[in-house]
């Protein structure tokens, strides 16, 4: 990592692959450079974390990730995408999250949380119910719609809900809600906070000229459109401990005509660095499309890595690469070529929560069960002893 302190480890006389080497940012040490990024589960009750969330995030920590970031957590009730979104707008919400943070830390992962506000992409159905705005058919499930807000009164698409443009008092409430959410996250034991400024949600919609048509200090040119996001980033940094990193997730490009370009976002990354942000999490797209199925650039293996590399090189800030990074050698290549400082594996981790452990085995040339939690590693070592005497299984 550009500002991290690496521990010089070797394996069999060769340098430890950097993917699985510890790294320190500010005063926070990650056991490796593998992160599990936020992925909404739509399984909260009134914003309160449930047992599902303990299992969801605990298993990634047990599986060996260096950083696990809890899904987009709304800073206010109207900032949820769906009724199933997590929230952190009260102390009760934070109390429900604290045991999850503590368990992740006990298993060696740095506990992180993403703070967000859905903006005009709020008041939506859970994705398995259709990805549409809440309507009459959702009332039977108890899912009532609510008023949505945005920088300008521009709906997501034809026939979608019309958001209310935020006035000055509304802007202040949003800013204060993010800062209050960061304080609650801090006190709940999280060691990384990520501010969601991507995928067309509220802060992303302030940044984009497609969705921000304001004619006051919070619209117009890039400086105006960046004003609220930067005020929030600065405010979060001020209340977040000096030895804990602040991340920001951005859409590196809008991927829509007239939207933000990579050059625009490189400039924004420089501004984020200036207010104390440590890592830019480089995603893309989302200014168009549904709340949970955003449109953006074509998806190929590692399709967003070039964005992370460009922002890292030209803004001089550490970056996290995300998007169809599925193989340990692929991840290591991204690091070797200077493409990013951290590697985020999202849906790959859903399929294989032990991916970090398997990545270490792949890069080191064999299983290393000593690094697994002892409750698993002991049994797996016993099994390995038996397997080593048998050779590969073949059908009779």
Automatic annotation (TrEMBL):
The keyword Iron belongs to this UniProt entry's keyword annotation:
no
Does the record carry Hydrolase as a key word? no
Instruction: Write down the required cofactor(s).
Output: FMN
| Keywords assigned by UniProt, alphabetized | Flavoprotein, FMN, NADP, Oxidoreductase
InterPro entries from the UniProt entry: Aldolase_TIM, OxRdtase_FMN_N, YqjM-like
Q: Which domain of life is it from?
A: Bacteria
Against CDD domains, the record matches this protein to:
OYE_YqiM_FMN
Gene Ontology terms, MF aspect = FMN binding; NADP binding; NADPH dehydrogenase activity
**NADH:flavin oxidoreductase/NADH oxidase N-terminal domain residues:** 19-361
Q: Which SUPFAM superfamilies match?
A: FMN-linked oxidoreductases (SSF51395)
* Full protein name: NADH:flavin oxidoreductase/NADH oxidase
Give the species.
Answer: Roseicella aerolata
Q: Top-down, what is the taxonomic lineage of the species of origin?
A: Bacteria, Pseudomonadati, Pseudomonadota, Alphaproteobacteria, Acetobacterales
